[in-house]
Amino acid sequence: MMNEAGQKKEIFYPNALPTGVGSMPHHETSQACRFVAGTLSLAPFWPQLPQRSFRENMYVQYSEGFPGFQIDETEGKMWVETSLMMEGLEAFYEKVMSSDLNAFRISLEYAEGLYKMPEILNAVHPEGLQIYKGQVTGPVSMGLTVTDENKRAIIYNEAAEDVVVKMVALKGKWVESYMREAVVAEKYLMFFDEPYMVSFGSAYLNMSREQVIGYLNECFDAVSCMVGVHCCGNTDWSVILDTTVDVVNFDAYEFGVGLTLYSEHLERFLDRGGILAWGIVPTSEAVRHENVTSLVQRLDDLLGRLEAKGFDKKEVLKQSMVTPSCGTGSLTVALAEEIFEKTVDVSKRVQDLYLS
Fold it and tell me: What is the CATH number of the domain that holds 203?
């Protein structure tokens, strides 16, 4: 993958480093930020807090500037008014063509964690970070979840389709720019979260393989740092692996076997320096029935499936990260924090067993 200067993007080998997906259940932003900074000290992320405000819903959060986008916070609803969108298209594309990236900024009330996290990170880690992770909602999930006034997914509106992709791409570019300005890190990582890729191949998602790859690659090309995709269920992994993505984050706890079936695509992905982010710690009450040993064994079983296909376990783990299986935004604070603590403990055990 090339950056804007036409140079190959850097590849990092995280050696089973832990990080998180993005959403957290905290109502108090500083509490969430301090927890992440203290727990995921090598690869923190800025937290999305959907329980704090409807504006931090993963679709509303990136809606500012979308022509015709409507929000009813009282009812918890969002939609695009088609007539208003059509009226706003010219102004939207003028912003796209301009060099003013701030036209796609995210306001404080939509992402308080984005603004609060640098202050805490710079105080706790004044020497800088190894990795700083951010995230936006991916174009497929954004386009399928947000509907027009007739409850039709906007991705199927020919005029809205391109708006969705360009909005997501430029929101990602702005977030990366803000992260670089606010926090010193060796590497930056921007995720495009795609929960609705689980619907690829079904009647619900009427998109071709080429369309999805094109949407994602356009978003990836907008940023200059490393890029990732998170999908928390089964999908046709060959589609994601055949994009220019650097990091693939998946629910390894429930659906890990599915990814191991795509051995040829995985081999090409890893050969070009791709990273597997194993979501091995469940984001549910199931975590309370697991311990570090059982979770590491579950991961080892999946690695064994890859070993049987000729992959080297240690090499795969060098090109791996460890995460919760999904976001924790809908859970209790206590459960979410337990999940992150176990994620860190699993990471340390994996590093001690296989990488030391």
Answer: 3.20.20.210
In a domain, 278, yes or no: yes
Is 211 within a domain? yes
Structural domain total, the chain: 1
Contact yes or no for 58/23 (Cβ under 8 A):
yes
* DSSP structural state of residue 355: I
Name beta bridge partners: 153: 147
pLDDT digits (tens, 9 = 90+) for 161-199: 999 999 999 999 999 999 999 999 999 999 999 999 998
Find the DSSP H helices in the chain: 29-39, 82-97, 112-124, 139-145, 158-182, 209-222, 237-241, 252-260, 263-271, 292-307, 313-318, 333-350
Q: Among residues 47, 46, 33, 167, which one has the least CA distance to residue 95?
A: 167
Q: How many other C-beta atoms are found inside a 10 Å radius of the C-beta of residue 9?
A: 17
By residue range, what is the domain housing residue 305?
A: 17-355
CA distance 232 to 84: 34
pLDDT band at 11, cuts 50/70/90? low
pTM of the predicted model, to two decimals?
0.95
Q: What is the pLDDT of residue 10?
A: 54
Helix 252-260 × helix 263-271 angle, to 10°: 90
Residue 11 forms part of a structural domain: no
What would the two tokens of residue 116 be?
A: 């609060």
- Does some domain include residue 142? yes
Name the region of 166 (left: φ>0; alpha: ψ -120 to 50; beta: rest).
alpha
Closest CA to 121 of 213, 180, 37: 37
* C-alpha 159 chain-centroid distance: 26
Q: What is the full DSSP assignment across 125-184?
A: -TT-EEEEEEEEE-HHHHHHHSBBTTS-BGGGSHHHHHHHHHHHHHHHHHHHHHHHHH--
- As to burial, measured by CB atoms within 10 angstroms (0-12 exposed, 13-18 middle, 19+ buried), residue 208 is exposed
- Sorting pLDDT into bands at 50, 70 and 90, what band is 12? confident
